[in-house]
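Because showing beats explaining, we let one protein speak, sequence and backbone structure tokens together, and leave readers to judge.
___
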Amino acid sequence: MSDMLIRSLVEKRGEKIILLVLDGLGGLPDRVSGKTELEAAKSPNLDRLAAKGITGMIDPVGRGITPGSGPGHLGLFGYDPVEIDVGRGVLAALGIGFDLEETDVAVRINFATLGEDGTITDRRAGRIPTEECERLAGILGDIELPGAELFVRPVKEHRAAVIFRAEGLGDAVNDTDPQRTGAAPYDVEGRDEPSKRTAELANRFIAEARKRIGGEERANGVLLRGFARYRPLPTFEERFGLRGLAIALYPMYRGVARLVGMEVQDVRGKMSSLFEAVTAHYNDYDFFFVHVKDTDKAGEDGDYAAKQAAIEKVDRLVSRFDDVPEKVLVVTGDHSTPSQMKSHSHHPVPLLIHGRHVRPDGVRSFGESACAGGGLGRFAAKEILPTALAHAGRLRKFGA
């Protein structure tokens, strides 16, 4: 469906839309129970919403494609993640409120543990606390590079961001993270002349960082991921007529929301604060993006029980939306993270849409097998927004 068609049909009035994203929601059947984490979870509220709503399965990018978090969320926001390639560095920087300039190249840092032989023993440095990340970012922040400004900012836990600022930098640069332990980080290489300049700066930064933090017990090295220049996008409100609010505990997801022009609510603390923020700001916005990280974190840790428990916690909280008036509720994930794989995967993700004008499809529970037979079928994530707009009464009739 073309962007121009949707823009031509958008109505400013209609019901509100809540998009509840359980990061890494999709899973694989457990060998003992034969159920995914979602299917094993005790989720009476999500099952009730599925029974009264309509369900299906989504491909965040395309069939067989394993998406990163950035592309996964761009699809959920109605943007084509293949046409719009946004690196994690930009999302990390925007997520912490850093004002990027178009000459900047932003990169995501993972603080990591390196062995004496230089190989990686822990890609996340034991998930160091955010306070430790702040201290390390301060140590690296005054590194000087020839002909460029450098900014190092803490993000959350083992994550930070580094921004290189100079004229003529490129972002056709490889990650240094081999995505596995027991291997050495890659050297940075650029694929064209501007990117070779960026690679030179990055390699100097890595070498200096190792000198400064090499004696740390856990976070004694840095892995760089997602080299990216900032390129503004058409805003969410321009495309869909919705004033959006992003509610997320993790900065990267606030970053992808800021990238498309949503306002951001910087919530802290417990998962319940995400749901409280929706009701607190309900009169001020048309669209609410609510992001839950716990499901993905447990999946990447290979912890089936923790992922199941996170889903059950969401289920207890989602009932808070029952009394919110005139809304369409969309529940899905940005990708699958099966705990058996400890990583993102290509598998499609369950979806439910609940609202006053939904045609129920006979599905009685929210899970992968049930949703595979749902009335929405299997489709690309970028089609969710038009579908939600229609259910919210925000799309005019097409043609005479």
